[in-house]
Specification:
Largest interface: A-B, 15 and 21 residues
Order of helices and strands of chain A: H
Oligomer: heterodimer
Distance between the termini of chain A: 71 Å
Radius of gyration of chain A: 21 Å
Low-confidence stretches of chain A: none
Largest sheet of chain A: none
Strand order of the largest sheet of chain B: 1-2
Number of domains of chain B: 1
Mean pLDDT of chain B: 89
Number of helices of chain A: 1
Mean pLDDT of chain A: 86
């Protein structure tokens, strides 16, 4: 019984680790992507309207 | 545009000339129905993602256990995803070559792929058990990443139409 609980905790720990770091990567890459896109739009607006 | 040594242009040319592509091109009414279903399922995905992730962030439905919200929303998410994929393939077939040259189409496909992998390989297995066993920091980070991913899918999808 205790082994089962230990195994379940270890599995959850691994999942938590994977979920946390993959989420961080997604947030960082997403933020960079949208900053680049918004800057591109701002540059175009500046070219068009000064 | 191709991925490494694989050039996908012949595949997109074939998509546009096959029966699905021809139906989409020739029958505006059928295309419009497909697009309506596509947008409705996009709204449904948006709803399930918002309710799930905002619950994990403790913003909405605080009186309902997060396990209940997540499990119920996931059923509708799967249905909406199935419809969005089917109608998306139909819609892309009608304008496949134009899509091939559109960078926002590729951005959407990439974020959709990452979104599906994230939901079924990471988020769902993590949230299957009791949420009180999971660190709140992990739950919140997963929720923010999920919101970011599906926002990117929706926004790049809409951007296709304006580029």
């Amino acid at each position: 019984m205790q082994n089962q609980i230990k195994f379940r905790k270890a599995k959850l720990g691994k999942l938590e680790f994977t979920a946390f770091y993959s989420s961080i990567i997604i947030i960082v890459v997403g933020a960079i992507y949208w900053i680049i896109q918004i800057n591109g739009v701002l540059e175009m607006l500046e070219m068009a309207y000064g | 545009m191709g991925w490494g040594a694989v050039d996908l242009l012949p595949f997109f040319e074939w998509m546009e000339t096959n029966l699905l592509g021809q139906i989409g091109k020739s029958y505006g009414g059928v295309y419009a129905v497909g697009q309506s279903l596509h947008l409705m399922s996009l709204a449904m995905i948006g709803g399930t993602v918002l309710v799930t992730d905002l619950r994990l962030l403790n913003v909405v439905l605080r009186d309902v256990p997060s396990e209940v919200v997540v499990d119920n929303a996931h059923k509708w998410f799967k249905l909406a995803l199935t419809i969005i994929l089917a109608t998306g393939i139909f819609m892309a077939s009608a304008v496949a070559i134009r899509m091939y040259h559109n960078p926002f189409f590729w951005a959407k496909m990439f974020s959709l792929f990452v979104g599906i992998v994230f939901v079924f390989a990471i988020k769902r297995p993590l949230l299957r058990g009791k949420h009180s066993d999971i660190s709140p920091l992990v739950l919140r980070t997963v929720a923010v990443a999920s919101l970011m991913l599906w926002f990117t899918v929706a926004a790049t999808g809409r951007w296709i139409g304006f580029s």
